[in-house]
């Protein structure tokens, strides 16, 4: 890649906070990208007759700490401040929105503001674009349907995982569109470059390693429970955490895949087979549904995602040898031979 050209509209003014207040050329570039993305966000929001919030964008090395402080500033409960985004194990960013949707903070890794060559600037822009995607998606969703309630029973968690994976997929696509349309990246011959080609290959090459978390790792955890080396709580916590983690990984991977076939389609891995009841209907749905559902369709969209996640993960867990059913106020897990 050789060039990045500019294409910007009218500017909405986010407050941009740079690491140590440094004003290097790379930091200035980051600030311009941030302003351009926010102006795109403004026009997407005004299409829906929504006001833009006051936005603060922080590039920081200590994302966790800054996210906690920003969450407090926005009046969010502690459980809503944590859980920063990890991309391939690396902490990438966080988007926080106040409950009244009038203020928001985006925190991204400080390398976004120090990237000096075109490819790393494009990747940094996609990282910021992803978080601005969460901002747009979160504001519109908040106005239409609200956040997903806290759930803990397996069948509810299964539904929630599909809702979370759908958001990651959609804001990833939004982030790529923002970055590509703003920076107009080109290769050596001047032909347009797609972010899916650049950052997608990393996700695709990490796919087998990610699926190892299901098979053999989660299978090993289930076996350890059967051998009385783990409590039922420990088993369920590991299942819920791993199931969500791989679903988000698949969402990022497929969002960065432009081919007709899904990236996971051609992967010969037992984990891909075990999870197929989840990923096949989920991505079939996401590929044809709008990136941001129209105002009247949020509740139908969430209902569909919950159905996909619930049916898909309950079947995937059954293949792994675990089934859940209601018992009193809680649930009962039965564990048996895997498929
Ligand atoms: Zn995300």
How are helices and strands ordered from N to C?
A: EHEHHEEEHHHHHHHHEE
**Approximate helicity band:** 55-70%
Shape estimate:
globular
Structural class: alpha/beta
Report the average pLDDT across residues: 90
> Between the first and last Cα atoms, what is the distance in angstroms?
47 Å
| Physical arrangement of strands within the biggest beta sheet | 1-2-5-4-3
Calculate Rg over CA atoms: 21 Å
Largest sheet: 5 strands, mixed
- Tally of individual domains: 2
- Strand portion: 5-15%
What is the tally of beta strands? 7
- Small molecules held by this entry: zinc ion
pLDDT < 50 stretches: 6-11
Structure annotation, total helices: 11
Protein described:
With 339 residues, the protein is an alpha/beta fold. The protein folds into two domains: 15-144, no CATH class; 154-333, no CATH class. Helices cover 56% and strands 12% of the residues. The chain has eleven helices and seven strands. It has helices at residues 25-47, 63-73, 78-81, 118-144, 154-183, 195-205, 207-211, 213-226, 232-255, 270-288, 298-320; strands at residues 15-17, 54-60, 85-87, 90-97, 103-109, 322-327, 330-335. A five-stranded mixed beta sheet has the order 1-2-5-4-3, with helices on both faces. It has a two-stranded antiparallel ribbon with strand order 6-7. α1 (25-47) links the parallel β1 and β2. α1 crosses α5 (154-183). The longest helix is centred in the middle third of the chain and has 30 residues, at 154-183. The structure holds zinc ion (ZN). The site of zinc ion has 5 residues, from α4 and α5.
